Amino acid sequence: MVQKLHDYLRESPSQTAGPYVHIGCTPNFTGIDIYGGDLGTSMKTGPVQGTEITIKGTVFDGMGAPLRDAMIEIWQPDAAGLFPSANETRGTPDPNFTGWGRSPGDMETGEFTFDTVKPGAVPYPDGRMQAPHITAWIVARGINIGLHTRIYFDDEQVANAADPVLSRIEHQNRVPTLLAKKEAAGLYRFDIHLQGPAETIFFDI
Amino acid sequence: MSLVNLPPKPGGFIPRDRTWQPDGLTPTYKTSVRRSPQAPLLSFPSTLSEETSPVFGHHLIGPLDNDLILNYAQPGQSAIGPRIIVHGRVLDELGRGVAGALVEFWQANAGGRYRHKKESYQAALDPNFGGCGRTITGADGSYEFRTIQPGPYPWPNGMNDWRPAHIHFSLFGHGFAQRLITQMYFEGDPLIKRCPIVGVLKSQEAVDALTAPLDMHQSVPMDCLAYKFDMVLRGQRQTYFENRKEGL
Question: Which of A72, A96, B184, B195 could be A46's S-S partner, Cβ–Cβ 3.0 to 4.6 Å?
Answer without folding.
Answer: A96
